[in-house]
């Protein structure tokens, strides 16, 4: 089963090309392919939003407010007469940016903290207590409190959610470092005179990559849902900026009267989160069969 | 009521009871009370059943139940059945007696003498005396956000027997209106309760009303129950005045912060009444056989300028902004149905004695060229206008979105700062923090109660012309002269542009279909309403 | 063992101190003034200043922090600025709905998760398996407030089967109380069932691949009996660990659910306290939640010790 695939796939000795690796992954676990395709479509929509959008997402047309889907407005209009299709396309930019930026910064911060903690017992004692402290909050509560003090802006949403998710990555990395540091081949590397930095880069990082990548896909999904929840509670990205979460939460008042406002961006969130989860699951199965769920 | 602290949508009763509004205080202040003079046929309601529980969905959790210490409408609504004042407004916003049986004003307008009703019990069993009234009024003068603006004219308040005498330093005609308003209310409570609280928030909620306080379970409910010893007036019920009959055994106010949930709750029969319904839901709810929608007229939207500091201290630039706006789309996007807003220069709705078109030339000009010229003359070169708004109150956010889009098109740069309401309140008191903010103003029976004209209110309209004219207005006792002065004040408001007033709007209240005895009103009146079994 | 326990307890203190400092800072650097919120927008500056003084908000922050921490160490979390009642009582009052909702949500998640997981393991790689996995993932991808509002519109407004919102304490009748919690529990539990489906499926598959199951089959036991009598029981242990994880997630998710359904729980308490800047309540709740989390973690560790004699510290 997949066990054999991993030993072959993991770039321990000679590295296969990234394309070839990807192809092998997709062929072995089709869900990865599905996830990638959907994400590619969403990314394209985000990149090409200015070209694809029939209207300026911020331009108002009050007499045409709350119209259902018609040819001129395929996704309908909201309470200001703004075009939902255009807002959903531009919303993809913000929602993806939040998802990816949170993932990038939480992962980067988590790796640094995890490496420091895994290699320096004194720092470990202090930093992991702080991480435990952060983990001790329910994540959405912590994000609410942070947003209240930082004030609403896209940057602050990213900051708050990154702060919330950093300890998850830190734990994974620290765990990996502790396990790997005890492995014989690290001792061997040390014996032949490899520097600490080289050992970290060459062995520890490479070998903790798979759990971190898997964790990262889930963080992206959490961040996108988290952004939506913050918008719903009124402490998210300023509502004049179109994000999927923001459009849905503004549309929830009209759920009965104008369901199209929340249905289309809602579907976009569901699809994106779904494909991220598929991707994460697929990667986990492929990279680390011990954690597999199938 | 005044500039909302809690968004609600609007209300006029089905009987359209504001249709005959008269100026509170105008008729009353000049002469002696004729109790029972008001009231007409509709008040003779058919016999309604007693018993049951009234369930009211409110817009959130009250911040306090100290009805004196805050002007938050939510607090006023929940405490309305508990506390009473010396006077009360009828459905035409005329002043009627409540705990006072009547009052007289001296010729010079400097002495008000209130005669108290006798044998009125408090919820703690004690009977109301002049001492209680004096203590309550004095606390109101210090603690109520409305108190100081009346008390600055007061030289002494004394009680003897069953009369209370208020002596003034100079004539202040709106005094009865201040004392009748159930918002930041001059509520009468036992002296011991007042003394215990001092300037701190109340710890006991003991009034003379038809319902007494039972329990406040935070985030769950506020529970009131019938006060069996209640000393009701005998006049027919009329607005907030007249007979108050506690038909329901109990009243529960539930905090339901999501408006969609409040609506769903009345539709499914879980609540009898819901407050603060978004105006966009009107068209659909009006067709719904399960509910009645009540409309309350008389509120108006306000965009305040910072006249103390920054670019908006320049009158020309304020005028430029006012001229750039097109009111119809702002109101339509904010309130939806044309039945729920009015594009009209008068601050007071048609049919009220305060109605006037004075200054209309400065209202809803919508001339982008003129706006650009004025902005140029004011030396405006594209500095961002910092505009505070909140999403916590739907209409504040919506109106800001549309108005700022219009300003952008007219060449202004708007920096819309969306924050929670607590932050708006904080920032707008710091002149360095902002250029504009949005809020609204509820119907007030006397223009002296409108916060726009207060020099101390954020925005700080402190021009010599305004101060002189407003001083004349509050000192004048003659109703005819007061309406003339009011027209001048309104015209001045459009000329000096301390605010932009996009227009008037109505609030909505939702109730179970055919809830017997219920009429929508600014603060929900739960007495004389028959609850479900 | 005792030494270990004492060591662990001492290690908790810095974590809680970190939490306390972070929360206090967070709350007090937030713009917004409870005195102004309380008085309403028509209050004068003098009145606001007077109330700030009465509430002790005009003292320097380090002084306020020391006072608060000193009292908190003695178990006194202070008094709510708005509700005028001890914060601890406030928390206790709000705990019931949150715990009940989380337990019911967990029930829903298990009720959906375990049967679906079993079916999908038994019919591995069939269309049924694919379908249940797809549904599980779909459930996890729907924003919870959206799900909640849709449930209200469908089951409370259109069908009229269940109450739309609100809370009835179980003291006033279990059945009535349960009716109010059905929709919230579904809105909370459904998205969280996906993890349980996947865990059940994988651990069941692991067990089904074991020798003793093959032996059982070889002895001629029918498929269903094998699954229920042998496999599921052994698969439950790893499932139980994920239940703990899910419960923590549910307590967090309850914030949004409580808001949608107007449930007077801890989440509502925090959201409304943040909006009105009720500092003592925010600080108290967060400290309490963090302490509970840390203590539960410790208890779980000790439980392993009790259950598995091989574990030694």
Low-confidence stretches of chain B: 1-44
Q: What overall form of chain C do the CA principal axes indicate? A: globular
CATH architecture of the largest domain in chain C: Orthogonal Bundle
Structural class of chain B, please?
A: alpha+beta
Question: How would the global form of chain B be characterised?
Answer: globular
- Assembly type of the chains comes to heterotrimer
Helix content of chain B: 25-40%
Please report which band the strand proportion of chain B falls in: under 5%, 5-15%, 15-25%, 25-35%, 35-45% or over 45%. 15-25%
Q: Based on DSSP secondary structure assignment, what is the total number of beta strands of chain B?
A: 18
Largest sheet of chain B: 12 strands, mixed
Number of structural units classed as domains of chain C: 2
Instruction: Write down the Rg of chain C.
Output: 24 Å
- Biggest pleated-sheet summary of chain C: none
- Biggest interchain interface, per-side counts: B-C, 54 and 51 residues
Radius of gyration of chain B: 23 Å
Strand content of chain C: under 5%
Question: What is the terminal separation of chain C in angstroms?
Answer: 7 Å
Helix and strand content put the structural class of chain C at: mainly alpha
How would you characterize this protein structure?
With about 290 residues, chain A is mostly helical. Helices cover about 70% and strands about 0% of the residues of chain A. In chain B, about 25% of the residues lie in helices and about 20% in strands. Chain B has helices at about 25-30, 75-80, 130-145, 145-150, 175-180, 190-195, 260-265, 280-285, 315-325, 325-335, 370-375, 395-410, 420-430, 465-475, 480-495; strands spanning about 55-60, 85-90, 95, 100-105, 110-115, 155-160, 165-170, 210-215, 220-225, 250-255, 275, 290-305, 340, 385-390, 415-420, 435-440, 500, 505-510. The longest helix of chain B is centred in the C-terminal third of the chain and has 18 residues, at about 480-495. Chain B starts with about 25 loop residues before the first helix and ends in a 21-residue tail after the last strand. Chain C has two domains: about 20-75, no CATH class; about 95-305, Orthogonal Bundle (MetI-like fold). The radius of gyration of chain C is 24 Å and the shape is globular. The model of chain C has no long low-confidence stretch (mean pLDDT about 80).
């Amino acid at each position: 089963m997949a066990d054999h695939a991993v030993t072959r796939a993991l770039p321990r000795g000679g590295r296969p090309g990234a394309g070839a690796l990807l192809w092998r992954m997709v062929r072995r676990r089709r869900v990865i392919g599905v996830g990638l395709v959907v994400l590619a479509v969403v990314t394209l929509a985000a990149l090409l939003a200015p070209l694809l959008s029939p209207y300026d997402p911020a331009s108002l047309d009050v007499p045409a407010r709350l119209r259902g889907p018609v040819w001129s407005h395929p996704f309908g209009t909201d309470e200001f007469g703004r075009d939902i299709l255009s807002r959903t396309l531009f919303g993809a930019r913000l929602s993806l940016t939040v998802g990816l930026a949170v993932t990038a910064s939480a992962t980067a911060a988590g790796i640094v903290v995890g490496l420091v903690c895994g290699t320096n017992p004194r720092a470990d004692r202090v930093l992991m207590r702080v991480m435990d402290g952060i983990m001790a909050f329910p994540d959405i509560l912590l994000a609410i409190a942070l947003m209240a003090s930082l004030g609403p802006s896209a940057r602050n949403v990213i900051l708050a959610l990154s702060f919330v998710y950093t300890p998850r990555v830190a734990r994974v990395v620290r765990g990996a470092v502790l396990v790997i540091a005890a492995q014989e081949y690290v001792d061997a590397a040390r014996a032949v005179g490899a520097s600490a930095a080289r050992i970290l880069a060459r062995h520890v990082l490479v070998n903790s990559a798979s759990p971190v990548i898997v964790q990262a896909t889930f963080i992206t999904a959490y961040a996108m849902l988290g952004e939506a929840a913050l918008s719903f509670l009124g402490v998210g990205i300023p509502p004049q900026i179109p994000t999927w979460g923001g459009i849905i939460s503004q549309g929830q008042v009209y759920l009965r009267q104008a369901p199209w406002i929340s249905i289309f961006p809602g579907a976009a969130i569901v699809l994106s989160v779904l494909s991220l989860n598929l991707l994460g699951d697929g990667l986990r199965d492929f990279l680390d069969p011990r954690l597999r769920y199938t | 009521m005044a500039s909302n602290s809690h968004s609600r949508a609007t209300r006029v009763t089905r009987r359209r009871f504001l249709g005959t509004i008269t100026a509170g205080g105008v008729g009353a202040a000049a002469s002696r009370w004729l109790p029972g003079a008001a009231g007409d046929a509709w008040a003779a309601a058919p016999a309604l059943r007693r018993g049951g529980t009234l369930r009211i969905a409110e817009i959130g959790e009250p911040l306090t139940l100290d009805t004196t210490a805050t002007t938050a409408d939510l607090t006023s609504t929940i405490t309305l059945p508990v506390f009473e004042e010396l006077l009360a407004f009828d459905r035409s916003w005329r002043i009627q007696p409540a705990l006072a049986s009547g009052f007289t004003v001296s010729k010079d307008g400097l002495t008000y003498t209130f005669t108290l009703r006798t044998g009125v019990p408090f919820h703690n069993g004690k009977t109301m005396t002049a001492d209680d009234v004096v203590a309550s009024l004095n606390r109101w003068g210090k603690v109520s956000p409305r108190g100081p603006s009346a008390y600055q004219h007061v030289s002494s308040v004394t009680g003897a027997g069953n009369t209370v005498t208020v002596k003034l330093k100079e004539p202040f005609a709106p005094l009865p209106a201040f004392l009748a308003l159930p918002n930041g209310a001059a509520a009468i409570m036992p002296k011991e309760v007042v003394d215990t609280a001092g300037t701190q928030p109340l710890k006991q909620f003991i009034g003379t009303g038809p319902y007494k306080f039972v329990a406040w379970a935070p985030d769950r409910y506020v529970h009131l129950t019938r006060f069996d010893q209640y000393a009701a007036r005998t006049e027919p019920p009329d607005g907030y005045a007249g007979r108050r009959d506690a038909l329901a055994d109990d009243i529960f106010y539930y905090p339901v912060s999501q408006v969609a949930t409040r609506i769903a709750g009345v539709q499914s029969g879980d609540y009898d009444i819901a407050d603060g319904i978004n105006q966009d839901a009107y068209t659909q709810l009006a067709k719904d056989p399960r509910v009645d929608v009540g409309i309350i007229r008389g509120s108006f939207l306000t965009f305040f300028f910072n006249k103390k500091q920054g670019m908006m201290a320049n009158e020309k630039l304020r005028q430029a902004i006012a001229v750039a706006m097109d009111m119809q789309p702002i109101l339509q996007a904010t309130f939806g149905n044309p039945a729920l807003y009015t594009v009209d220069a008068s601050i007071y709705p048609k049919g009220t004695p305060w109605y006037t078109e004075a200054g209309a030339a400065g209202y809803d000009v919508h001339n982008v060229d003129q706006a650009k010229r004025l902005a140029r003359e004011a030396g405006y070169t594209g500095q961002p206008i910092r505009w505070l708004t909140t999403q916590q109150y739907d209409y504040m956010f919506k109106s800001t979105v549309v108005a700022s889009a219009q300003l952008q098109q007219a060449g202004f740069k708007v920096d819309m700062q969306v924050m929670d309401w607590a932050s708006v309140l904080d920032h707008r008191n710091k002149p360095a923090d902002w250029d504009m903010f949005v809020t609204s103003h509820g119907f007030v029976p006397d223009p002296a109660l409108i916060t726009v004209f207060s020099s101390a209110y954020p925005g700080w309209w402190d021009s010599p012309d305004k101060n002189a004219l407003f001083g004349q207005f509050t000192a004048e006792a003659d109703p005819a002269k007061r309406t003339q002065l009011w027209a001048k004040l309104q015209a001045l408001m459009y000329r000096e542009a301390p605010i932009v007033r996009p227009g008037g709007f109505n609030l909505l209240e939702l109730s179970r279909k055919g809830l017997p005895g219920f009429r929508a009103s600014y603060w929900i009146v739960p007495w004389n309403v028959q609850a479900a079994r | 063992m005792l030494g270990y326990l004492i060591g662990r307890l001492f290690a908790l203190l810095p974590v809680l101190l970190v939490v306390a400092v972070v929360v206090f800072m967070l709350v007090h650097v937030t713009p917004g003034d409870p005195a102004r919120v309380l008085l309403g927008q028509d209050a004068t500056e003098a009145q606001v200043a007077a109330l700030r003084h009465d509430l002790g908000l005009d003292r320097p922050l380090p002084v306020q922090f020391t006072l608060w921490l000193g009292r908190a160490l003695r178990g006194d979390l202070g008094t709510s600025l708005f509700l005028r009642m001890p914060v601890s009582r406030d928390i206790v009052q709000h705990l019931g709905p949150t715990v009940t909702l989380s337990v019911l949500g967990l029930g829903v998640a298990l009720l959906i998760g375990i049967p679906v997981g079993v079916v999908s393991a038994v019919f591995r790689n069939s269309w049924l398996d694919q379908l249940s996995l797809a549904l599980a993932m779909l459930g996890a991808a729907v924003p919870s407030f959206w799900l909640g509002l849709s449930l209200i519109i469908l089951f409370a407004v259109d069908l009229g089967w269940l109450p739309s919102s609100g809370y009835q304490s179980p003291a006033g009748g279990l059945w009535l109380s349960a009716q109010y919690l059905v929709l919230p529990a579904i809105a909370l539990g459904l998205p969280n069932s996906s993890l349980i489906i996947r865990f059940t499926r994988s651990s069941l598959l692991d067990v089904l691949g074991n020798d003793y199951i093959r032996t059982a089959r070889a002895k001629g036991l029918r498929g269903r009996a094998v699954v229920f009598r042998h496999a599921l029981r052994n698969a439950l242990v790893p499932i139980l660990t994920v239940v703990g994880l899910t419960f923590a997630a549910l307590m967090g998710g309850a914030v949004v659910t409580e808001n949608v359904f107007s449930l007077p729980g801890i989440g509502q308490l925090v959201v409304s306290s943040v909006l009105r800047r009720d500092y003592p309540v925010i600080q108290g709740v967060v400290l309490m939640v963090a302490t509970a989390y840390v203590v539960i973690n410790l208890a779980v560790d000790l439980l392993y010790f009790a259950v598995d004699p091989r574990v030694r510290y």
